[in-house]
Amino acid sequence: MTTILQNSKITYFGTGRRKTSIARVRLVPGSGKLIINGFPGESYLQFSPNYLRISYGPLKTLGLVKEYDIYVQTEGGGLTGQADAIRLGIARALCRINPNNRKALKSEGFLTRDARIKERKKYGLRKARKAPQYSKR
Predict the structure, then answer these.
(1) DSSP conformation letters of 11-49
(2) Where on the tree of life does the source sit, at the highest rank (predicted)?
(3) Which of 26, 76, 79, 102 gets the most CB atoms within 10 Å of its CB?
């Protein structure tokens, strides 16, 4: 489901993932506010300029920072994973708004899903790859 007409405003959806974080993003034409899990985006991301820069990246690339209100439901992982998931969700929603946005977002790397996740622990090892200390006798 890409768009829903709600109170004569079109809503665009995008889903982003990073590590174990999942972000469901809704873009609604508005004044540019960011709401994450019911909290203002700045306070949820702990006023970190790095997390805010990551989250707003796709909008800044297209010059649409003050054009859309962003509503995000995110879960799992930490703030770094969630910020990257939000960025991917916003980029995907912007591609649904206008397919011509895809080229600019793709060249900046905003549409690439970072597939790096924690490797599972194997039996006989202490961690995913760390072996117990070798003893000759």
Answers:
(1) EEEEEEEETTEEEEEEEEESS--EEETTEEHHHHTTT-H
(2) Eukaryota
(3) 26
